[in-house]
Every structure is written in structure tokens, then in C-alpha cells.
């Protein structure tokens, strides 16, 4: 047994499945998860000392790359003055100001510690604000693991949702309606039938949890118009896309002002920080001002705020997103060029938005969850493992988006493309 295998075996003794978050277990691709010992820039090293070019970046937060000197400096300096107070600190004021300045839809913002907390709180707030219970979500979108969001579509359209996890009460799932992504007609039909009961619509404005799926212009416009017409709260879950697809997030790319926005991942620069915010009249319903309760012992933790603040400042530097987007686009273009040389049954396709990309074992770019489900998963798993052997760390699932960081240079991209080409012709 190598060290990764030893650690995975040991981990399973006291940690369920050996992991603290399920995708880490390599369940969908098979094999032994890599235990990481170190990261620097675009690279990570596993417990056996093997080095990889990393395209996961802790599932998105590490937009500056691993162990960025400015982030380390800010966190170290802050830690010397204490880890946590459970009382207000000056850093929280500065990061709230910065977030509201960067994202025009945020009039007020509250800090929390995970994306799950952000979406869960935003939904409670939307329900408290509207006095309604029903929630719309879309098939294939992930919004963290709160009960009302672990719901899959029922047997027919416009039916009640069913729990997608054991332990979620049917009564809770019944208030979540699940619709197909990019299906404007289904959305219109639902609002026509029960628009006055809808508290909120929550969406990944660019989906990144069913691999990368882009919304159509019509879908984006319909979500804004229908929620507005029916007095429902439009929640953009930008936990993944926030400050990852561009400086003004997906809402900036779409030209949409959501009522509430959830942020996470990049905002914490690798430490547990997330946020939700938006319209001041809605945010005023939150405790202590209003009747909607929400709280957190470690909310706005000084170390997380320090890491987040530096990360936001670095990505705001002129040219940051242009450079990141160009590299990520070059990666997707390179993969598409390789795909064109392969037979349709063995091909690959890719796309990118900002520093985020999708790779599909399919000749076509998907537009829905069912398109994604039709990609060749067996071939993806073979591709994943062959790349891993060659020192390229991709997300261990065909249903995850990937990430390029500012620390990736054209050299790493070219090495990865060369390896991908060799691997794809072989498998
Ligand atoms: C990651 C993610 C979440 C959950 O965030 P956690 O910090 O893992 O709780 C919610 N929504 C989206 C879109 C995400 O990508």
C-alpha cells in the first residue's frame, strides 16, 4: 500500500467513508482519493510526494492559486491578534463595504461561514419577506445541503418535489418545486398556475454543479421578469460563480439585478467565509432588525475575512480577469481542437467562462441536466484516471466544473493539453 492508500484505510476507521465531504471519496471515478500534503501556486503534492497541476482549487475558492503570499501574510498577521471574538471587528465593515461596492445588487450583506448557510438563510429570509412558502429550484443545480434544497423533481412537471436525501421530511420537500434548467415554458406554466404562492426562485445563474451548463438569454430574462411580476424573490446562488466568472459575477455578465445573491468559495480565499445580501428592504427583515432569525458563532471570522479581503483586492487589479479568462479559454479551445481529431464516440468538448471550465465526454456542449447525463461517464472516468497518473488533478466526477487559477501559466496549460492529447488517443 502506498501512503494515500494507508491514509484512506486509516481514515475510514473514524470518519464515515474516510472523508468529510462525499465527492472527495472518488466514489464516482473509483480508486483511492489523494491525500494532499502541500499546495503552491498551480501545484499540489499528495501524501506520496507526487506532484500534480491542480484544476480543482479546493472546488473553486483558490482563484489566486495555493498558498498565495499576500493571503498567507494577511492571515498570519490577523491571527497574531486573536482568532475570533464573537463580536464585531473592523475587517467585517471593510469587506462588507467592498462587496457592496463590487456588486451593485448588494445594498446590504451578511457574512456566514459556508455556502450552505448562505443559501439556507437567503431562503428563510425570502419566505419571511414574502410570507409565502414555495421555492423553485432547477434540476442539476446544487445549493448546499439544507433540507429544502435536497430535493429532486417529482414524476411530472409542476408536481411536488421529492427528497433526494434520506432524512429530509417529505413535508419540507413538498414546498420545493424542481424544474428543468433552461426551460422557459415550464417556468411560465408554473408561475401562471401558482405564482402567488412562490416565495423565491433560486438558481445557479451559470450552473457549475452538473458540470458547466450555461443558461440561455431567454431563460435568464424569464427568471427575472416572472419573479418580479409575481412578487417572488430572485436568488442568484453565486457561491461558485461569484468573483470566478468575472468581477461582477454572473449577474454582471447577464446584466441582471437579482433581489438576493449568495456568495462563498472565492470570497473566502480558501477559508470558511460566505455571504448573502441584496435589496435593503429585504435584508431589513433579518434579526436583529427584523423577525427572520439567522446567526453564527464564527460568522465574519477575522482570519476568513482577512483572506477574503486580500483575495478580492488581488482579483480587482487591472487585467486580472482578462488574463485568467484568456488562459481558461485557451485551455478549452485546446481541448476542443483535440476533440475534433477524435471519432464522435470518443470525442471531448469543452467551454469556459472566466476562470471556470467544463469538459464533456460528448461531441456537444450540454444545455440541461439530461444532456449532461447523456455524456459518456465511463470514458470520463478513464480520462480522469489517465490524467491523474500523468500528474493532472481534475475534479473526480463528470458532473463538476473545473477551475484555473491566476497561478496557472501558459506553460501549465500547454503541458496539460499535451498530456490530454496523448491520453485521449490512448484510452
Ligand atoms: C459549493 C456550493 C454551495 C455550497 O457551499 P458550501 O460552502 O459547500 O456549503 C452552494 N451553492 C453553490 C452554487 C455551490 O457551488
Automatic annotation (TrEMBL):
GO terms for molecular function: glutamate-1-semialdehyde 2,1-aminomutase activity; pyridoxal phosphate binding; transaminase activity. GO terms for biological process: protoporphyrinogen IX biosynthetic process. It catalyses: (S)-4-amino-5-oxopentanoate = 5-aminolevulinate. The keyword DNA-binding does not apply. Its cofactor is pyridoxal 5'-phosphate. One of its GO terms (cellular component) is cytoplasm. CDD domains: OAT_like. Keywords: Cytoplasm, Isomerase, Porphyrin biosynthesis, Pyridoxal phosphate. Pfam families: Aminotran_3. Its EC number is 5.4.3.8. Pathway: Porphyrin-containing compound metabolism; protoporphyrin-IX biosynthesis; 5-aminolevulinate from L-glutamyl-tRNA(Glu): step 2/2. The modification N6-(pyridoxal phosphate)lysine is found at residue 265. HAMAP family: HemL_aminotrans_3. Belongs to the class-III pyridoxal-phosphate-dependent aminotransferase family. HemL subfamily. This is Glutamate-1-semialdehyde 2,1-aminomutase. It comes from Chitinibacter bivalviorum.
Amino acid at each position: 500500500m502506498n501512503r494515500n492508500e494507508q491514509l484512506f484505510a486509516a481514515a475510514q476507521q473514524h470518519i464515515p467513508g474516510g472523508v468529510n465531504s462525499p465527492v472527495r471519496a472518488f466514489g464516482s471515478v473509483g480508486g483511492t482519493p489523494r491525500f494532499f500534503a502541500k499546495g503552491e501556486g498551480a501545484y499540489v503534492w499528495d501524501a506520496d510526494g507526487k506532484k500534480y497541476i491542480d484544476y480543482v482549487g479546493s472546488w473553486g475558492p483558490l482563484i489566486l492559486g495555493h498558498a498565495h503570499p499576500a493571503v498567507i501574510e494577511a492571515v498570519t498577521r490577523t491571527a497574531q491578534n486573536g482568532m475570533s471574538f464573537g463580536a464585531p471587528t473592523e475587517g467585517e465593515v471593510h469587506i462588507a463595504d467592498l462587496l457592496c461596492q463590487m456588486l451593485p445588487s448588494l445594498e446590504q450583506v451578511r457574512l456566514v461561514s459556508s455556502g450552505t448557510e448562505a443559501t439556507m438563510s437567503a431562503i428563510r429570509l425570502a419566505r419571511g419577506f414574502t410570507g409565502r412558502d414555495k421555492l423553485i429550484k432547477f434540476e442539476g443545480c446544487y445549493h448546499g445541503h439544507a433540507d429544502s434544497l435536497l430535493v429532486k423533481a417529482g414524476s411530472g412537471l409542476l408536481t411536488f418535489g421529492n427528497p433526494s436525501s434520506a432524512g429530509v421530511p417529505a413535508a419540507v420537500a413538498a414546498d420545493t418545486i424542481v424544474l428543468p434548467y433552461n426551460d422557459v415554458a415550464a417556468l411560465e406554466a408554473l408561475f401562471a398556475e401558482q405564482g402567488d404562492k412562490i416565495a423565491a426562485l433560486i438558481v445557479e445563474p451559470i450552473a457549475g454543479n452538473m458540470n458547466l451548463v450555461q443558461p440561455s438569454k431567454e431563460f435568464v430574462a424569464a427568471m427575472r421578469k416572472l419573479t418580479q411580476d409575481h412578487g417572488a424573490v430572485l436568488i442568484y446562488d453565486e457561491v461558485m460563480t461569484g468573483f470566478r466568472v468575472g468581477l461582477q459575477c454572473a449577474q454582471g455578465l447577464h446584466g441582471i439585478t437579482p433581489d438576493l445573491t449568495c456568495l462563498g468559495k472565492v470570497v473566502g480565499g480558501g477559508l470558511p467565509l460566505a455571504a448573502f445580501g441584496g435589496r435593503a428592504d429585504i435584508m431589513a427583515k433579518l434579526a436583529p432588525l427584523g423577525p427572520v432569525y439567522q446567526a453564527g458563532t464564527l460568522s465574519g471570522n477575522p482570519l476568513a475575512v482577512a483572506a477574503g479581503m486580500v483575495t478580492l483586492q488581488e482579483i480587482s487589479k487591472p487585467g486580472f480577469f482578462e488574463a485568467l479568462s484568456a488562459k481558461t479559454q485557451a485551455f478549452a479551445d485546446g481541448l476542443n481542437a483535440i476533440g475534433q481529431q477524435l471519432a464522435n464516440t470518443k470525442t471531448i468538448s469543452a467551454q469556459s467562462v472566466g476562470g471556470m471550465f467544463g469538459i464533456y465526454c460528448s461531441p456537444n456542449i450540454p444545455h440541461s441536466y439530461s444532456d449532461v447525463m447523456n455524456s459518456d461517464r465511463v470514458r470520463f472516468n478513464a480520462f480522469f484516471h489517465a490524467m491523474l497518473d500523468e500528474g493532472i488533478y481534475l475534479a473526480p466526477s463528470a458532473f463538476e466544473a473545473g477551475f484555473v487559477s491566476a497561478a496557472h501559466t501558459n506553460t501549465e496549460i500547454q503541458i496539460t493539453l499535451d498530456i490530454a492529447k496523448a491520453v485521449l488517443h490512448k484510452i
